[in-house]
Specification:
The structure holds three protein chains of three kinds. By secondary structure, chain B is α/β, with parallel strands linked by helices. Chain B has helices at 57-75, 80-96, 98-109, 113-132, 162-176, 190-201, 216-225, 238-247, 273-285, 305-316, 337-352, 384-387, 403-411, 426-435, 468-473; strands spanning 21-22, 24-26, 29-31, 37-41, 48-53, 148-149, 152-156, 179-183, 209-211, 231-235, 254-258, 264-267, 297-301, 356-359, 374-377, 394-400, 418-422, 440-443, 462-463, 476-477. Chain C folds into two domains: 3-51, Winged helix-like DNA-binding domain superfamily/Winged helix DNA-binding domain (Arc Repressor Mutant, subunit A, Orthogonal Bundle), CATH 1.10.10; 97-389, Alpha-Beta Barrel (TIM Barrel), CATH 3.20.20. Chain C contains 18 helices and eight strands. Classes of the chains: A alpha/beta, B alpha/beta, C alpha/beta.
């Protein structure tokens, strides 16, 4: 007794909502053997622009949240992901042809990575910041602050659909940045399901924005966008990365080059790639 | 004679023992430059100081090769403790030759001897002393148990703090175990060349530090694109910073940039007014305003605007402009004709855009490049002088009504290097400091520097930090790309 | 009058004046007639057992305990009662100690050479209040001090005279006598300054302080250096501090209507914070000070450059507010020419060169003069001088 399953429409995730691409475009997502899985939205530069607007609007709230709160929210993502482990294993297997064991390992790694980063939110400033013993009657303190809006090209190959996405997005979120991420073009389904997880995890709208479609088409628009502070080119091929790094130079964006950090493991340096050190001096006296 | 016309108190230049001409310092030796040479002049008199060789692209290659050889064969193999001892030696030699360096800097740059003597050179020594101690403690720098140096560092520095910028670049690079090719600015090569002598006196192994004066478009450009350079550190204009970032795109070369700024100095109505006025003066008239982190935009709470401007202009009237070698000079010469023209053009724009100009009424020497301290009031946020970095003794005064407005106006710039806050309300100070998008915030003070204190910008003011542990990590890697 | 008669007169006077008894009641209590009581009371007045004085208004202590006594200066600034004084002082911008000290340190780097130095040294001498304030002071010591004030350096007749000599009240007459016709206002001749008001602590009653002041003025003091009540200031009793200055200022008035100039010593070393010093400076000016002075010299720290810069900022601001110039006197601890020159620089650059006159700036010092003389000799002869070549007085 078979039942006709209900197929999911995969859309974009912008500002906490799930719109279709304004361009109306979709593209075929298929299994490695060519079987149709879904029509993914093919985001346009205008969708990317809208995502940046949403991300910028969310910076104040997310960076202004307490570190403790950001930690709880990131942990909540892990919790929600854990509860939907089976769904993600299924999606990963379908879109990448991974074995059940590998797919399950990827999902578990993604969950554990979120837990790891969740724990960093209220420790990072203490580890990398602190008082500077200047030679004068001054209180002097350096603290890391989020750089602002981070554009991310998520890994496009390897165990990418979920783990690569989490490994690039989470570290930017730790300190209070907001993110516009271009998911894996070839296996976007897990990414969009991850958007559903994010949407139900107390993450304020606009903090994470997920686009599906062509990195080659969209990334240059993000690289040259004047309201983006940093760009992570981990998932860009070398040609795209070169062009985008050059574009990024126009507004002196902070750039993460492909291969600069692991695309799957946790890294404190990845957190550090998206922070600004602010140093505050104040006079000290009995006046 | 009125008491305030202090008799001339010139610092003697007899302490200087300059060569009539200088070549390039490559591999521990003085060599001729492949390109033509030029005369470096004193901007206060336009008199020649010395003939300086221009490094050619080939010279850059030689210098990089020397640095690579020194890195491979000596410096990267040396214990951190020994590297540190060399740096301590350099720090001491700088202290010993402090007066000479101060005089040379003032002569070449045009900045007052009071500043080179009391600020630049003491900080230079402090910078080397600070980083010397890091050399054998790299495992505590926050990059794991086995941090590695990067290799050859190419360093390009500006003319506003020639020797200090050298120290900011060279000290952490050497402490971390890198070797260096440094290009000083074309108009201010002198102290870098004297520093080369100090490296010789310290017995620093050949090739660890190479100093190559030259043109940005030739030597600077070659250094940036050189395939065997692992790290570029640049301080200078945002325009050149952009070019450098473009050039090294797609390579593995690491980059730190300290670029321009348009710092907001925010004065609230509960500020310690007299000290705020001093801070405003220090913020924009220190070093003739040739300071990337200058407080060039004064944001005054509207209800005290008139009082502040009145006190400020009265205070400015006591500034002494003239011979930089005179110990009583507050405002020295503009570093170059080119810079003077730029300042003049921007000030003219300010006037034509309707801002109200006040300029110190004081005599100006006939020879040399001079610009009298200038304050613009009635400046609109949209005026050119409120947005563009002037890099001169020119202050733009704007007003605000509430803290929110002050923050919004302060942040309304593509730059993000420095800002000042003047208030007696500590709670407000901390919150405003949180909201400002700038790398260095001075509260109830301005233009303070210290080797332990990270310095660097947000947004188009560059990236990376110099100073302290943060500055050290810019010359290290944790070895594995995790 | 017999002893027993004076005793009974005293008892009657107490009952009458202190306890408000009627003459009838007193007669009954002392078992004498009402007429006898009347005679005893008259006798008590006659022989001085009772003295009755009539004043135009309340006594000083009464006047100073019912709100501030506004002055013309204070009224012009809207300071008419204790509350308005308090708000006025509270509204003053705060001082950032580090910024102030940095400013002073920068001023101290001014390099004063050649003819500027020569002029500065002479200026310093003209601004010195040559001071002796020792328990061991004698008429002889004061005479010697005056001789030094008149002729600081006998070997060089071009040496200017000092502005004033500064002594305790009981030494004023000796200083006046020694000066003779050379007494003046600091410029026309040497002024005689006297510390008063229970110097240095100021811990006595207002009546004693006023008597102390009147005594010094009567004996010929042309300037009074009073101390404020620091205890009252620190405890928030601004009224007492203010009114004591007002009353002492009144006590400086001579019979002919002229007045001895009043320098108000804040004793900055006890006020401790720059905010306190700033408020006390404004308070003293509002209350009528001609000069504000840092210290007694008996408390450390005495005069410092940052403190003096701060006080110069106050008189500068007062000038811009009112057009009136108030003097400043750093005192205590300034022993070397080098230091004194830094003060001159501070005066010129903070308040203005107009302040470099004995009417507006003084150094309270004793050993400074000899160091200036040594420097002066060096500039004249080109050789370094030594302490044997200046007089010890």
């Amino acid at each position: 007794m078979s039942r006709l399953p209900v197929a999911k429409t995969y859309k974009l995730f912008i500002g906490g909502a799930f719109p279709r691409s304004e361009s109306g475009r979709v593209y075929d997502v298929a299994t490695p053997t060519g079987e149709f899985i879904a029509n993914a939205s093919k985001a346009s530069r205008k969708d990317a622009r809208d995502a940046v607007v949403a991300a910028r609007a969310a910076v104040a709230k997310w960076s202004g949240a307490t570190a403790n709160n950001r930690g709880q929210v990131l942990y909540r993502i892990a919790e929600m992901l854990e509860g939907r482990t089976a769904q993600f294993i299924d999606e990963i297997q379908k879109s990448t042809g991974a074995s059940a064991k590998d797919a399950s390992a990827e999902v578990h790694a993604a969950i554990d990575l979120l837990v790891w980063y969740a724990g960093w939110t209220d420790k990072y400033a203490q580890v990398v910041g602190g008082a500077n013993p200047v030679a004068g009657p001054f209180f002097n303190l350096s603290v890391p602050e989020p750089t602002g809006v981070v554009a991310v090209v998520a890994p496009q190959t390897g165990p990418t659909s979920l783990l690569g996405l989490v490994a690039t997005v989470a570290p930017a979120l730790v300190t209070g940045n907001t993110v516009v991420v271009i998911a894996s073009e070839s296996s976007p389904c897990a990414a969009m399901s991850f958007a559903e997880v994010v949407a139900t995890s107390d993450v304020p709208g606009g903090v994470v924005n997920i686009l599906t479609g062509s990195p080659t088409e969209m990334t240059p628009w993000l690289a040259s966008h004047q309201d983006i502070n940093a760009i992570d080119l981990t998932g860009a091929d070398s040609e795209l990365a070169l062009a985008c790094e050059r574009d990024a130079a126009e507004t002196l964006k902070r750039v993460v080059r492909p291969g600069q950090f692991s695309a799957t493991l946790g890294s404190i340096d990845r957190i550090g790639a998206f922070v600004e050190t602010k140093t505050v001096w104040h006079t000290k006296s009995l006046s | 004679m009125s008491f305030l016309e202090y008799a001339p108190a010139p610092e003697s230049t007899s302490i200087l023992n300059l060569s009539p001409s200088y070549g390039l310092f490559i591999n521990g030796e003085w060599v001729d430059g492949g390109d033509d040479s030029y005369t470096t002049i004193s901007p206060a008199t336009e008199k020649p100081i010395a003939e300086i060789a221009h490094a050619s692209a080939n010279d850059v290659d030689r210098a990089v090769a020397a640095a690579r050889r020194a890195y491979d064969t000596v410096w990267s193999r040396m214990s951190g403790a020994d590297r540190g001892k060399y740096l301590f030696r350099i720090a001491r030699l700088i202290q010993e030759r402090a007066r000479e360096l101060a005089v040379a800097e003032t002569l070449d740059n045009g900045k007052p001897i009071r500043e080179t003597r009391d600020v630049d050179v003491p900080l230079v020594a402090a910078w080397f002393f600070h980083y010397a101690g890091w050399s054998d403690k790299l495992e505590w720098a926050g990059l794991g148990a086995n941090p590695k140096s990067l290799g050859v560092a190419g360093q390009i520095i500006p003319w506003n703090f020639p020797l200090l910028m050298l120290a900011w670049k060279v000290a952490p690079a050497l402490a971390a175990g890198n070797t260096v090719v440094l290009k000083p600015a074309e108009t201010t090569p002198l102290t870098a060349l004297l520093f080369a002598e100090i490296c010789q006196q310290a017995g620093l192994p050949a090739g660890v530090v190479n100093i190559i004066p030259g043109r940005g478009s030739v030597a600077g450009a070659r250094l940036v694109e050189h395939p065997d350079v692992n790290k570029i550190a640049f301080t200078g204009s945002t325009a050149v910073g952009r070019q450098i970032a473009r050039t090294i795109a797609g390579t593995d070369t690491k980059l730190t940039l300290e670029l321009g700024g348009k710092g907001a100095n925010i004065v609230f109505d509960d500020a310690a007014v007299d000290e705020a006025v001093e801070g405003i003066v220090r913020g924009i008239f220190f070093n003739q305003g040739h300071v990337c982190c200058a407080g060039s935009r004064l944001l005054v709470q509207e209800n005290i605007h008139d009082e502040i401007v009145e006190k400020l202009t009265r205070r400015l009237s006591t500034l002494r402009l003239g011979d930089p070698l005179d110990k009583n000079t507050d405002i020295g010469a503009i570093n170059s004709k080119e810079q003077l023209d730029r300042i003049t053009a921007l000030v003219n724009t300010g006037e034509s855009e309707g801002a109200e100009r006040w300029t110190l009424d004081c005599p100006v020497p006939k020879a040399g490049f001079w610009f009298r301290p200038t304050v613009f009031t009635n400046v609109a946020t949209s005026n050119t002088i409120a947005r563009e970095e002037i890099f001169g003794p020119v202050l733009s005064v704007l007003t605000f009504r509430t803290a929110d407005e002050a923050i919004t106006k302060a942040n309304n710039t593509p730059y993000g290097l420095s800002a000042g806050i003047w208030t007696q309300n500590a709670s407000r100070m901390l919150r405003v400091a949180d909201e400002l998008r700038a790398g260095v915030i001075w509260a109830n003070t301005f233009n303070q520097f210290d080797p332990t204190s990270p310095f660097g910008g947000y947004k188009e003011s560059g990236y990376g930090r110099e100073g302290g542990r943060h500055g050290l990590t810019a010359y290290l890697t944790n070895g594995d790309a995790r | 009058m017999s002893n027993s008669e004076s005793d009974i007169a005293r008892r009657a006077a107490r009952l009458y004046y202190d306890e408000n008894k009627t003459q009838d009641e007193i007669g009954e209590m002392l078992d004498i007639t009402r007429w006898k009581v009347g005679r005893l009371l008259a006798l008590a007045r006659e022989v001085g057992i009772v003295s009755i004085s009539i004043t135009d208004s309340a006594t000083p202590s009464e006047r100073s305990s019912s709100g501030i006594i506004p002055t013309d200066r204070s009224r012009a600034q809207g300071v008419t009662d204790t509350q308005s004084l308090r708000s006025f002082l509270r509204r003053l911008p705060a001082v950032d100690a580090i910024g102030l000290e940095a400013r002073a340190a920068t001023l101290a780097t001014r390099s004063i050479k050649t003819e500027s130095k020569r002029a500065a040294l002479d200026t310093i001498i003209r601004l010195v209040d040559l001071t002796t304030l020792e328990g061991a002071d004698t008429p002889g010591k004061v005479k010697s001090l005056v001789a030094k004030a008149l002729v600081p350096d006998a070997s060089d007749p071009t040496t200017p005279r000092v502005a004033a000599v500064c002594v305790y009240p009981d030494m004023v007459a000796h200083a006046v006598a020694a000066l003779g016709p050379n007494r003046g206002d600091g410029e026309s001749g040497i002024a005689v300054a006297s510390v008063a008001t229970a110097f240095p602590s100021g811990r006595s009653t207002i009546d004693v302080k006023l008597a102390d002041t009147r005594f010094a003025v009567d004996k010929g003091a042309t300037e009074i250096d009073m101390v404020i009540d620091r205890g009252a200031f620190l405890s928030g009793d601004l009224e007492t501090v203010f009114n004591q200055i007002v009353l002492v200022r009144e006590a400086c008035v001579r019979a002919d209507g002229s007045h001895a100039h009043l320098k108000v010593i804040l004793e900055t070393g006890e006020l401790r914070t720059y905010d306190n010093i700033k408020r006390a400076s404004w308070l003293a000016i509002l209350a009528g000070a001609d000069f504000i002075k840092t210290s007694t010299g008996k408390v450390q720290p005495a005069a410092t450059l940052p403190t003096t810069v701060l006080m110069l900022e106050v008189v500068r601001d007062w000038f811009h507010l009112t057009g009136e110039r108030i003097g400043v006197k750093p005192a205590g601890g300034i022993r070397q020419s080098k230091d004194a020159i830094r003060y001159l620089v501070a005066v010129a650059e903070v308040a203005g060169e107009e302040w470099l006159t004995p009417h507006l700036f003084r150094f309270g010092a004793s050993s400074l003069l000899n160091d200036v003389l040594l420097q002066r000799q060096k500039m004249t002869t080109g050789r370094y001088s030594g302490p044997d070549y200046v007089t010890v007085d």
